[in-house]
Amino acid sequence: MAGCSDKYIVLHPVGPVAQKEYHLIVLSTIICAIVVIPVIALLIFIIYRYRDTPDNKAPYEPHWSESKLLETIWWGIPIIIVIILGVLTVRDTYSLAKEPVNPKKAKPLTIQVTSLDWKWLFIYPDQKIATVNYAEIPANVPVQFELTSDAPMNSFWVPQLGGQEYTMPGMKMRLWLEANKTGTFFGSGANFSGEGFAHMQFNVTSTNQADFNSWVKGIKQSSPALTQSGYDHLAQKGLAKVQSFSSVPNGLFDKIVEKNGHHMTGDMKNEYPKMKQKDNMSGMDMKH
């Protein structure tokens, strides 16, 4: 906690995904406290009750070996807690892999994210624009982040909007997030990836739909195009400032995934075409 900011942003969720995860954190903490607090209390009691002092009247029982009742309690309660936590975690994990329920029936926004050394590239395929080290989204609209890496494996994380998801070369991961109010939210890479790791930070700004549309229009009118050679330069190791691009090469994101897919070996190479064909992957079987 000493490393957190004053706001403890993980505990200030903004949006349905982060709120569900926050409730799971709180519930898990309460359930675990059922074990932790009694264990600490018993430790203090035992140290005091059976301390080695001349006036201690605690009974001396050198031949005592076991208690089926006590063993049932101290094994049974943790087993029950693990089962409860497992069920709740699996339930929420699978539910969050789906598109959030949006009462306003807003059309989801897709953003293709590529982690590089040491910067983030955000491509808006429908708007045909791109940004570096920042993203803008409309409030109350589900956002589908498609994630990959053109560098070492990393992890995409916007704490106030939801949990992290890995970015892996040759893989297309998915993460649904949504902001239920306007604001600017801190994001970063959550995996160590070399010298510039500490600088892999970005902001996600949530605005109303009209402001988002104006922002897209402004990018198209005032920003340069991202060419293939421009991307190749951007992908080289090094830091990068905040940038915007009025257009991107057609299919750039899929080409990045495909390019790194050629470097897979064994089961990963066999599995990638299946996942690409399904195109609905929200996680990864870590056996592959």
Automatic annotation (TrEMBL):
Domain Cytochrome oxidase subunit II copper A binding stretches: 106-218
Transmembrane feature ranges: 22-48, 69-90
Source domain of life: Bacteria
Swiss-Prot/TrEMBL catalytic activity: 2 a quinol + O2 = 2 a quinone + 2 H2O
E.C. number(s) listed in UniProt: 1.10.3.-
Cellular localisation: Cell membrane
Name of this chain's protein: Quinol oxidase subunit 2
Organism, as annotated: Heyndrickxia acidicola
